[in-house]
Specification:
alpha/beta, 11-stranded mixed β-sheet, two-stranded antiparallel sheet, 14 helices, globular, disordered C terminus, Tubulin/FtsZ-like_C, microtubule, Tubulin/FtsZ_GTPase_sf
């Protein structure tokens, strides 16, 4: 919905021609000036396919592709039952070929296919199991295209599914290998924002999804609209990912408003800048002050006068204030794509993308929950019964621990001792993308 409103769409085009220059990135108009999404909706449970647009953790949406309303979403028959193995090896494997047929068809119809955007949850069975299966299949067929995912991390505060740590760890094991950019949207952070910042006593999935949609809309603004400094998927990856495995981003958004509320006053540029780097505005439950930024992207959908206020001096001041939280051996880590089309209802906003070593806190939390169950082999029979082997769990756990160690290594590295960078990496080579 935020994407449609940004273009001035209510089923039919009502926006300015300038705003709609790149509208075919996410929407297509077959006939009659009536737009439909360019997406594929997939779910293994037939009873929830009709709400796939609004319920983030009931499946996933594959962007930059076309979904014809007449053909409907791709739906399984029995569901994955919160079991990663069913989504990856059995139920999902039966459906994935038909999904790939649509992917091939729509990819061939693109003038210049840049990449794929996939939104999925890592806590259930479909988004985690079949989602990572689809990612690996697309990677095999389109190895030179960018794979970008919005991955919703599980939290006990939002869901009571006990096997979520298993599903998330097995999924991260796949995402490390097969994606170029992964935005980590943490259910725990979303819940804390709703409860502490927005003062919602009982946040619903709709409240959480409102934050997700605002962040995703901000991240893709410079893809969808013209601007002074634009960033596409490949430019973002080149500037944000210094090492292939370290492509897990911490997104943030400012200003934060609850669903249906109105902003009380327009924020100034310094206020937006301060909120943008505030841990309370991060969509991942990690404190950036506990780590160091490798790179940072600030998407600024502002009006022309606001863009004039944000000049190189402001960027320099921003870097100076937060210099202690940046690694010293990467110069000019701040990327600033700009666009003069602000989100609907806001005069100015700022979307933050941080590649920070503090993201290891999220992986540590999931890893601790995983280890507590796996050491006792709890619930393991549900996965081995679908054809999995215990060694896959061991490898996934080892890969996540190696990822945490790698983040910590680059956090501790200094420019005065560059030969230590990568010194302890030989044991990680067998996991790296070549």
């Amino acid at each position: 919905m935020p994407l449609c409103c940004g273009w001035g769409l209510r089923g039919r085009l009502k926006g300015a021609q300038q705003c709609c220059r790149a509208i075919t990135l996410a929407l297509v108009c077959p006939a009659g000036n009536k737009y439909v999404p360019r997406a594929i909706l997939v779910d293994l449970e037939p009873g929830v396919s009709h709400v796939g647009w609004v319920e983030v953790d009931l499946g996933f949406l594959l962007g930059a592709l076309r979904w014809h309303v007449a053909s409907g979403p791709r739906v399984g028959q029995s569901g994955a039952g919160n079991n990663w193995a069913k989504g990856h090896y059995t139920e999902g494997a039966e459906l994935v070929d038909s999904v790939l047929d649509v992917v091939r068809k729509e990819s061939e119809s693109c003038d210049c296919l840049q990449g794929f955007q996939l939104t999925h949850s890592l806590g259930g069975g479909t988004g985690s199991g079949m989602g990572t299966l689809l990612i690996s299949k697309i990677r095999e067929e389109y190895p030179d295209r960018i794979m970008n995912t919005f991955s919703v991390m599980p939290s006990p505060k939002v869901s009571d599914t006990v096997v979520e740590p298993y599903n998330a760890t097995l999924s991260v094991h796949q995402l490390v290998e097969n994606t170029d950019e992964t935005y980590c949207i943490d259910n725990e952070a979303l819940y804390d924002i709703c409860f502490r910042t927005l003062k919602l006593t009982t946040p619903t999935y709709g409240d959480l999804n409102h934050l997700v949609s605002a962040t995703m809309s901000g991240v893709t603004t410079c893809l969808r609209f013209p601007g002074q400094l634009n960033a596409d998927l490949r430019k973002l990856a080149v500037n944000m990912v210094p090492f292939p495995r370290l492509h897990f981003f911490m997104p943030g958004f400012a200003p934060l408003t609850s669903r249906g509320s109105q902003q009380y006053r327009a924020l100034t540029v310094p206020e937006l800048t301060q909120q943008m780097f505030d841990s309370k505005n991060m969509m991942a439950a990690c404190d950036p002050r506990h780590g160091r930024y490798l790179t940072v992207g600030c998407h600024l959908p502002w009006t022309a006068c606001a863009i004039e206020e944000w000049n190189e001096a402001d960027a320099s001041t921003c870097r100076t204030r937060t210099a202690a939280y940046f690694v010293e051996w990467i110069p000019k880590q701040l990327k600033r794509p700009m666009c003069d089309i602000p989100p609907l209802g806001l005069k100015m906003s700022a979307t933050f993308i941080g590649n920070s070593t503090a993201i290891q806190e999220l992986f540590k939390r999931i890893s601790e929950q995983f280890t507590a169950m796996f050491r006792r082999k709890a619930f393991l029979h549900w996965y081995t019964g679908e054809g999995m082997d215990e060694m896959e769990f061991t490898e996934a756990e080892s890969n996540m621990n190696d990822l945490v160690s790698e983040y910590q290594q680059y956090q501790d590295a200094t420019a005065d001792d560059p030969e230590n960078l990568g010194q302890d990496l030989p044991e990680l080579v067998h996991f790296s993308k070549l």
